[in-house]
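We were asked to recover a plausible sequence for a given structure. The inputs and outputs are reproduced exactly as logged, with field labels preserved.

PROBLEM: sequence recovery
POSITIONS: 210
GIVEN STRUCTURE:
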């Protein structure tokens, strides 16, 4: 809402700006931002998005950040900044980060590192489009393929919706990227969902023709 108001005021004053910084700390705010960007703004082309990852645990640290990476990938003017990078213990409350105090990566760091490679490497190659919020995470188009970011536990109805979408893919080949461990599995859609090693770790399903 603030971005829309800002855009209108800048347009009325005929004052374009280079970049706008906004803060996102939950799913609703993230998808409101996607809606604003899809509707189009006239006074600025680029947005820096600050996503907080300061909570403890893989689920709390990686879920929102992973969803933001996929949801905002279609917008070339968007840059994502993750806060906090290194765990802090000199504040009133301990603040977690992607790295611990010895600068060793936490599991959430690995999840985001691998997801970034999947999104911007050979597999997707910048063709991600039409991102949509789902009960299981995010669904997007990757050229002629479907990409699904599955965030376990984000919504109780997520598994039901995921099963329905996989059934629609029929005999399509699906690549499953285990973001917590870096493993890749290839097989038919009906075998794409199985018990993960870490039930809290997000994973990516990418349907491929042939």
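RECOVERED SEQUENCE:
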């Amino acid at each position: 809402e603030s971005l829309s108001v800002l855009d209108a005021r800048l347009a009325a004053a005929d004052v374009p700006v280079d970049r706008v910084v906004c803060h996102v700390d939950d799913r609703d705010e993230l998808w409101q931002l996607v809606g604003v960007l899809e509707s189009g703004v006239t006074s600025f082309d680029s947005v820096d998005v600050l996503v907080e990852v300061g909570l403890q645990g893989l689920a709390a640290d990686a879920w929102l950040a992973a969803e933001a990476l996929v949801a905002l990938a279609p917008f070339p003017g968007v840059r994502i900044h993750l806060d906090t990078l290194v765990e802090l213990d000199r504040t009133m409350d301990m603040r977690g980060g992607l790295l611990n105090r010895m600068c060793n990566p936490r599991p959430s760091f690995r999840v985001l590192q691998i997801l970034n490679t999947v999104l911007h490497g050979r597999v997707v190659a910048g063709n991600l489009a039409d991102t949509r919020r789902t009960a299981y995470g995010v669904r997007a188009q990757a050229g002629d393929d479907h990409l699904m970011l599955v965030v376990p536990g984000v919504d109780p109805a997520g598994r039901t919706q995921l099963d329905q979408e996989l059934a629609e893919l029929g005999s399509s080949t699906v690549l499953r990227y285990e973001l917590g461990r870096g493993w890749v599995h290839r097989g038919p859609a009906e075998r794409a969902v199985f018990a993960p090693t870490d039930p809290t770790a997000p994973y990516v399903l990418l349907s491929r023709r042939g």
